[in-house]
Specification:
With about 550 residues, the chain is of the alpha/beta class. Helices cover about 35% and strands about 15% of the residues. It contains 15 helices and 20 strands.
């Protein structure tokens, strides 16, 4: 297949960008499961934006930077904040039904770390509503093809060019598309693209307890790393403080998230005896930023030996709970908890990666014609800790920035007539070969390795870390990385194996990044270095793999 634009991922970043790019050519969007299965679909809270007359850009910027613990890219923060309102109105124009008050105005909520009410939401299923509208628009666009059950194996770079043609490719750092596995047919197809955009979402499944769906196996991070992309600040993995406690988890469990908006509405964190405890950790109490709340809960659990704390939402009132949080109310009720009468057992769970493929303000990676947006990208917006509800905003704004960059380049190319010749490139690139591989029957190895990675990361690279724990984790992950590579090299590709390969790669990158930062900052808390070091700190912890030809 050949296309002008290949987008890998079907969340808010990929879909919104696909709609824009269809103006300039053919778009192929690939997604490894059904097109509606994405992290966006599970985003409950909303989108942060300055829409109230008592709010202003400076306050939103200040809240974001303060939450980011000194690592935010100021220009990136200013960009998303100032373009936030227009992005909300664009989504409204597309047909997104955000919740409104009795006067017909957008109802604005508040979440941890925000100084004003500025969260636009669609009850407690904001992501699902946005995904619904974008998928509908995409389905009506004749220039966009969505390929479900297509898994990106590798990005196409100079090492995929046949040796006899390499002398004609002077620039060694260009992306030409991707090899993709059609999971339904079992065949590997190459998609040649003028521009490739990674919008693959998160990596939560590298941990045992996560709010992310089973698809969030860090595929885009691993794809970029193997292609030679710079990754930055991968040590900053945000643990959402309030996921619903579940006694039994397996290697693919997605825990249910109790949205931060519930605390924004007045819910209070309490210990097993029903006593508040957040005042001991932060003056903002239950509305402190996520890193502070998650560490506080972790500390309380370690002190008491309990498995969970409580979130008391009864103070909100039964009528308001049912009206504003119908999904959370019903999901808890299905599990035997009436949150209008009983407190909710909660624990922190891996939720969001603040690091990723390092991109500039236009979404460009260090590899030509390769872009990244959404959670897989490190724009610098979030710094060392993400402010609640800034993620969907970042995805929408930066997908537009990529579009604007490509639009400008498209205009120049039309004048110079120097667009990539996709037909010529296709002939120069190897077809996928699985010669010498076999269909593996030992699937227990994949299941066991997957669970082992999750347990290592949760035990040693979680909310609280130490040099000793990180070194211990690295030894085990490196050993598994070698074992998985050996297994991969002799086995016909399949989705479980590809996900395992990506998970162990992402685990390795997170640990290596964490070992580079010898201080405690934001989401990275080290027992050896409990203080934040503002004199000698690393701005970005870069992990980079050089392409070998």
């Amino acid at each position: 297949m050949k296309t002008d634009f290949l987008i890998i991922g079907s969340g808010i970043a990929g879909l919104s960008l696909g709609l824009r790019l269809s103006e300039f050519g053919k778009v192929i969007i690939i997604t490894k499961k059904k097109k509606a299965e994405s992290n966006t679909n599970y985003a409950q809270g909303g989108i942060a934006s300055v829409l109230d007359k008592e709010d202003n850009f400076d306050l939103h910027i200040k809240d974001t930077i303060e939450c980011g613990a000194g690592l935010c890219n100021i220009k990136a923060v200013e960009t998303i904040v100032k373009e936030g309102p227009s992005s909300i109105y664009e989504l409204l124009a597309l047909g997104v039904k955000f919740t409104k008050d009795e006067h017909g105005n957008l109802k604005l909520g508040r979440e941890g770390g925000h100084s004003k009410n500025r969260i636009v939401h669609a009850r407690d299923l904001t992501g699902k509503e946005i995904e619904r509208v974008l998928l509908h628009k995409v389905s009506k666009n004749p220039k966009i093809t969505v390929l479900e059950y297509h898994f990106a194996i590798e990005l196409l770079t100079i090492r995929n060019i046949k040796p006899e043609y390499r002398k004609y490719f002077k620039d060694k750092h260009i992306c030409y598309g991707a090899y993709t596995l059609n999971a339904k047919t079992g065949k590997v197809e190459k998609i040649i693209a003028g521009k490739t955009i990674l919008a693959t979402g998160g990596l939560g499944q590298v941990y045992l307890h996560t709010t992310n769906p089973a698809i969030a196996t860090g595929d885009g991070f691993a794809l970029g790393y193997r292609a030679g992309c710079e990754l930055a600040n991968m040590e900053f993995v945000q643990f959402h403080p309030t996921s619903l406690y579940q006694k039994d988890v397996d290697e693919e469990t997605q825990v249910f998230l109790i949205s931060e908006a519930v605390r924004g509405a007045g819910a209070i964190l309490k210990d097993k005896k029903g006593k508040e405890f957040m005042h001991k950790y932060d003056k903002r109490k239950s509305l402190a930023p996520r890193d502070i709340v998650a560490r506080a809960i972790d500390c309380e659990l370690k002190k008491t030996g309990e498995n969970f704390v409580y979130l008391d939402a009864t103070v909100i009132g039964a009528e308001r709970i049912k009206k504003e949080f119908p999904n959370i109310y019903q999901q808890c009720l299905n599990r035997g908890i009436d949150i209008t009468k009983s407190m909710i057992p909660v624990v922190p769970a891996a939720h969001y990666s603040c690091g990723g493929l390092k991109v500039n303000i236009e979404g460009k990676t260090n590899i030509k014609n390769l872009y990244a947006c959404g959670e897989v990208a490190m724009t610098g917006v979030h710094g060392a800790n993400r402010l609640a509800s800034n993620s969907l905003l970042e995805a929408v704004v930066f997908s537009k920035k990529i579009f604007e960059s490509i639009k400008q380049e498209h205009s120049k190319n039309n004048k110079k007539n120097n667009k990539l010749n996709l037909d010529k490139i296709e002939k120069c690139i190897f077809n996928w070969s699985d010669k010498g591989t076999v269909n593996a029957e030992e699937w227990i190895l994949i299941k066991h390795n997957k669970l082992e990675i999750k347990e290592i990361m949760s035990d040693y690279v979680g909310i609280v870390r130490s040099t000793y724990r990180l070194k211990r984790a690295l030894r085990r992950i490196k050993m598994m990385k070698d074992e998985i590579k050996e297994f991969y090299d002799r086995t016909k590709v399949n989705v479980p194996l590809l996900e395992l390969r990506n998970l162990v790669t992402v685990a390795y990158i997170i640990i290596k990044s964490a070992m580079k930062r010898k201080e405690s900052r934001g989401l990275h808390y080290m027992l050896d270095y409990p203080e934040r070091d503002d004199k000698n700190f690393k701005k970005d912890t870069i992990i980079y793999k050089r392409i070998k030809i």
